[in-house]
Amino acid sequence: MDDNFLLPNWASERLYHDYAKDMPIFDYHSHLPVGQVADDAQFENITQVWLYADHYKWRAMRACGVSEELVSGIPVAAGDYERFEAWAKVVPQTVGNPLYHWSHLELKRYFGVNEILSPKTAREIYDHCNGLLARSEFSVRSIIRSSNVSIVCTTDDPIDGLEGHIALAKENWGCKVYPTWRPDKALAAGDEAALNSWIDKLEAASGKSISAYADFMDALQARHDFFHECGCRLSDYGMERPYSAPYTASEVENCFKKIRSRTSLADGELEQYRSSVLFDLLCMDARAGWTQQLHLGAKRSNSAKAFKLRGPDTGYDSIGQFDTGSALVALLDRLDSADLLARTVIYSLNPNDNDMLASIAGSFMDGKTPGKIQLGTAWWHNDHKDGINRQFSALSSIGIISRFVGMLTDSRSFLSYPRHEYFRRLLCAKLGTEMENGELPPDFDHIGGIVRDVCFNNAVNYLGMELP
Q1: N or C end of the chain: smaller count of CB under 10 Å?
Q2: Peptide bond before 468: cis, by omega within 30 degrees of 0?
Q3: Mind listing the pLDDT tens digit for each residue in 177-188?
């Protein structure tokens, strides 16, 4: 993992070192806890910042036979060193998995560690990293600044008070942190008890009584307006597939009344409800001038036993296979016909959908907004070398890679920014190899300019958020 790691030839090396390496980072999708940024928190040890919330690592540890108290620590956690030591035993077994590269890049970039993490080196590396983490230059904000991060977007529920964002907006510390509207719970009508509990909280947050569907939309609009006032310009929707069934206003009203009376919806009613809510929310985004993200294709909480013990987002989700294409076309077409199709980034967890989604995106360009609808970066189970290259191939072959808004961390860890480096090296490897092969001209100003755009500039221009 030297300076030319993943760079196979001279052109790739020049593109990376001269054009990509020093570009700022625009991390427009993450799950970082904004409260820790607002508090400028410090971590007592590397286990806390590295293992407490990283279910990428948790999955690998379980696959290597590590017991749960050393993995998630749910319901009972082992000591922090014991958990780190368990991870150190697993790392040598992750060869071929991006965790092997990411882990060593993070140790190298933040802590200057050049040794392989293993049981033999675990104690020394643990103590070394902890000594550095105790310093002020390893506070949360210092880590973000040292990573050359310009903008971070978190993921936020509409009922969130955004106190951390409001506090951060008053400070000038070198990075902007913006909220992202993530209204998934408004669509979760399969669990009437949970949805009603959330609607009750929405009532309190919006100050509006909710008994009818129109009340529900009014309350969501009030929160949407509040998010906008707090700097939000980006929404995000996590769904197995798009919802675009036909419905009438009376049918949706009937569905909502059944929800509020704690009555289960039939399958057709559930689809009508979700289709109406999703369309209305996407229209709010368009009217506000926001950009929307659609994260599609995840099969969530596959293990009922694990979900009962540990809850969601603990490492039991997988790639799903759904009928995405026709539903997505119907949704985008309806929005487009109403002149309410916002800038849209579409991600699929199933890489088999890449070509289809890239071609669908090209069907809804408006001739005014560069890259208005686009295939998002390789995501979650795909943000490894092969997955990133597959996304590059689909985007460049069917779409326009020069307009691509680039990489994101999608992470809960403040040490994940080397994933942008990993992505940039692969981007330069692709374009540099095509230059070496004579498929692209040896014009470094032009190709290097595209590299800089994909690394940072396109996201700035596309998302329209104020820089620090």
Answers
A1: N
A2: no
A3: 999 999 999 999
